Amino acid sequence: MEGDGVKGLVCQKTMDGNASNGNAVEKTVPSCCLKAISCLPEEDAKCHSTVVSGWFSQPPHPPSGKRGKAVYFNNPMWPGEAHSLKVETVLFKEKSDYQEVLVFESATYGKVLVLDGILQLTEKDEFAYQEMIAHLPLCSTPSPKNVLVVGGGDGGVLREISRHSSVEVIDICEIDKMVIDVSKKFFPELAVGFEDPRVQLHVGDAVEFLRKSPEGTYDAIIVDSSDPVGPAQALVEKPFFETLARALKPGGVLCNMAESMWLHTHLIEDMISVCRQTFKNVQYAWSSVPTYPSGVIGFILCSTDGPAVDFKNPINPIEKLDGAMTYKREMKFYNSDMHRAAFALPTFLRREVASLLSSS
Question: Residue 347: which residues within 8 A CB-CB, separation 6 or more?
């Protein structure tokens, strides 16, 4: 974390001293904020190590005459629970310069992409995430022209942005080229996004890319990042959000992946608090994605000073964009009703974050 004296995305338990000696001195990191690890590392040699960390794996070919043993693994990002997907065939497993990349064919969700043990997407439900993270911001601003995607190397967000004919330039900054190559090989329905001539690919660090970007370049920025652990921690701290705000035009919009309300309310509170220090308007939305932890994922939407943005009511409805609903692939999840509904928060979450969110 860059030292500017401002709290970044730190677990509330640590800040309160509940995970320390009682004097708010950091001794340990709460389990909910640790990097995903398996609780049975000795089993790694017997199963798919990048799948079992936080999920479930079964050796595809048990020893002759022996029944395959199901091994459950606990991921501290969501302690005490695991979502099981049966592995039929491992299609790809290799370590890049940044992470372990694995693709497997599952029994019920089609092909699955896993990075460093964390499930990123499945063929069956990827559209619920890709469509929402792209269209929530783009349908909240009139005629977006310049859009940046941070991360998103699978190409799914690009596929969705390409539905907007007003967009002239789609920059994407992905640090891991292997993710792009793997997606093009195993997930062509997502990687089709790279085929759009408006896409300009930049392989490298997003923080450095943004620092070099001229001020006020983008109408919208979509951050399709990993969970805020390890290197991705920097992508949810105040200096990064300030860099994002600088790159946005007046009234520009940001959409950032923002965890699950069922598991990480304290992280959501911290993210909203940090964004409120930088952006004029901050809202929280959520969507259902069955294979993500707890089955839901959240999004923080922010806008800079300038023309007012009403995130809750799409000013640029997808249904009125010529051919958008069927471009490349028919839309399956997002529509204007889902857009408005995404901002309806359950009572328990509203109670926690209401004072932090913008009134608009």
Answer: none
